[in-house]
Every structure is written in C-alpha cells, then in structure tokens.
Amino acid sequence: MANAVPSSHTPRPHGVTFAQSVGFGLGDFYGGGQTTLTATYLSLFWTRFCGLDIQTAQGIIGGCTALSALFALFFGALSDNLYRFSVGRRFGRRRLLLLVMSPSLLIGIVLWIPGLHPGVYCMAYVVWMMLFQIFMTAYNALPGEMTTDFRGRTLLSTTRLYISNAASTAIPLIGSAVLTALGEHTASSYQIFAMSFTVLFALAMFVCWRTTWELTPEEAGFAEFADGTRTNGHVGFAGWMRRVRVLLRDYASTLRIRAFRQHLAIYLLLMCGMDVFGQTFAYFVIFDWGQSAAFASLLLTLTVLALPLMPACNWLLARFGPRTVYAVGFCGMGAGAVMMIAAWLLRGVLTGAAWTAFATASAVLFFAFRTSAGFTPWQIFPLIADVDRIVTERSRSATFAGVQAFFRQLCSGAAAMIAGAALALTGFDATRATQPFSAQIGLACSTAGIYLTAVCLGWFVARGFGLDRRTDGELLAETERLSAGGAKKDVDPHVRRTVEELTGVPYDRVWPDARE
Q1: What is the CATH number of domain 21-222+241-467?
Q2: What is the pTM of this model?
C-alpha cells in the first residue's frame, strides 16, 4: 500500500473525560485478560484433558504465535490505509477493526472443548492470535489519535492498565475459586470460567468501539480521498508488487528511529519473559513447589498490587522519567525471581507457614515491581509517533504498532516453542504426579531464570533511553514550528540535540519540506 499523503490539517485538540477513558480501557480487558487466560491455563488444559504433550501444546502456541506475526504487518498497513476506501471513511480505519473483532472473539470457545483433533486446536488458535493482532494494531494507535495532550494520553494509558490489571487479577482469582469448588481434575471446571470470560471479552470490545474516536481522514493525511479528488483505481499485479515493496520499506523505516529501537528492545524483553512466565508458572508451582493449580491461580491474583501502585508509578514517570521507573522495576522483579528459585530450593528446609510466607513474599515482590516495569512501555508508546512525525511528516501510529506486534509475536512464539522443547528434553511430563529433578530445573529456568535474564538486559538498554514528557514536548513544539514554515537554521541548539538523540537522524534530514 502506498504511503499516505501528508496533510496540511493539524489534528484538533480533544479533551478526554474519565468515562471516555474507561470506555477505551475496556478494550484492554480483552488485551490483558486473554493473555492471562491463555498463558496460565491453555497449555495446562490441553496437556491434562485434550491428550497433548507439553511439546505439542507449546509448539501449537508458539508456532501459531510466530505465524501471527505476519498478520501484524498486514493489519498495520491495512489500518493505516483504510481511509483510502469508502468503508474505512464511513466506519473509521481503527474502529472498524474493533467492531469486526467483537463477535469474532467467540471463536475462542473452541479452544476449551476437549477431544478435538490437534489440527482443530491449531487452526482455532491461529484465528485467535490473528484477532489479537487486529486488536493490537488498531487499539495501540488510538491514544495518540484521540488526543495530543500528554495528560489526556496518560489518563487513557493509565485507565487502560488499571482495567488490564483488573482482568489479569480477576481471571486467576475466579479460576482459583472455581477450581477449588469444583475440583481441578475435571475439564468442566476450566471450561466454566474460560468460556465465560471469552464472552465478556466480546462485550468489552463492543463497548470500546462505541466510546472511542480517531483522526479524521483529513487529519490523517487522506483529504484527497475524502473529497473524491483521488481514488484507488485499478492496481493490477505489478501495482500490488510495487505497493508491497513500498510497504516493506515503510516498515523497515520504523527501525531507524532510535527511540523506537530502544523501546522495542525493552518491550520485547519484558513481554517475552512475561509470556513464558505465564505459560510455565502453574507447572512451576505444582511440580517445583509441590502446590496445587488453585494455589498458583491465587498467587497470580497478586497482580492486583498494580492497581494501588499505578499512581505512584505515574508520579515517578512524570517526575524522574522512564529510566528511573525501569531501574526500580527491574531491580525489584529480579529480586522476586531470585526468591522464587530460592523457595524451590528451600523446600524441606523451611516448612509449613514459614515456607508459605517466603514463597508468597517472593510473588508479592515480583508482581509489585512488575507493575512499574510493565506500566512504562504503554505510557511511552503513544509518544513514538511524535518522534517519527518530525522525520517523516506522517502519522504512522498503526505502522509502529504493527512492527511492535510483529516482533512481539515472533519472539514470543519462538520463546514458547524453545521453552516447550527444553522442558521435553529435561523429561517433563505433565501427566505425572511428580517430575525428575532435571525437569524441575527446567521449570525453574523457564519461569524465573528467563525473567531474571530479561530484566538484566532491559536495565542495560533503559540506561540510554531519553524519551519522556519533557523531550516529547520539545519535539512537538519543534514539529509545530517547522510545519508552520519555520526555518531549520533558527532551531535552538538544545532542541537540535534532543531531536537528533531521539530520532537517530541528523537534524538537517528531518521535516523534509521545511525551509533551510
């Protein structure tokens, strides 16, 4: 698809009310909730009730996740260019995708039906992950389009994270209650809460669609399509090939933005670690700690700690910037991961209430500090498009969302398959009541060891991250000056350094249409 035509229209300022932020945030009831639901219970359900071994289950999850990365690129380009078509101009280029998703999410019910062929689970999970890519592409672009105000964007992102964490807490809490009441050795116990939440995801997506808005075609650079002076016309095979080449160059160009490369590295380390942790934590608790699946679910409800801690994280982010927030979060998460491994090694040394208190403390520490580290990327992402706009003169939020989702799914899929293969090599078998010591080591490494490695690498990258509220404000002001006809030679030296540090592009090459 060809590039958008830069528009002379400046996005109108929009205020965001709390009710509107809640409507937007309900979208992440699905985003955060489905991740918790599938990561925590799906592999466990498949290996216990559907006849799949750990390598097959993780292979389906990882392979389909990696395959869905290709969908991320397609949907990113589609969303950015839907205003070229009448259906996009009528229903929106972002919100149309959310509307389509609402009923489509019910396909997730198939994942929780025992006795099906592995190929059916595979196809259903491909569709499930494809829908998640549609969501990530459209949803992540909305905060940057709903308002240009930093406080408004922060309200949207914070509310979104509150609701996401509420879903991530409610699912294991309700799961623990259901498994305790009905027993964790029957498939219906898992089906009751899994299918119920799938229906709630579809309803939440509908509410999100009803309560959000986005840039108009004129504001997004598609004025010529909106007024009918330009149409798509017949393209042909050669034209499509040309568009594919342009599209691939467009995606590749996102990686020249230095702030995005840094953000992407931190985000991938956190998300991949979180995905593998979620997929193996229940196994770790059952077989390394010798506890029940209900106890694992109960510990996962400690994500509720994120709710009271988010205002503090928000204050830290505004006061000290993302580098400090990342450093605090990474140190606390690393300490929690070390304590989880120690709790496994101390079984039999600490007994009864002392061991339970120590194990619970490790989870409290881990989930409390995961709040600050996991909170920050979502506050930073809406600012990435501001950095890009001063270079390209375009609004490419969905393109960046597509690239981010592509790498996230590709890396997470690979990590899931590697974790499954590694556990199989250690002799892990989910149908056994106990595991050999080699399998216990594999579970400890997959659950806590991978996260410990990720936070160390993430801390190293975050030390050089410079995008924050102050530098974003400088970028926006300079973009406004250049778009109003300001000359590059009149730039303030400090602003010039800020632009070059964040973009990774020499100042003379930004905003090509500006006067020298």
Answers
A1: 1.20.1250.20
A2: 0.72
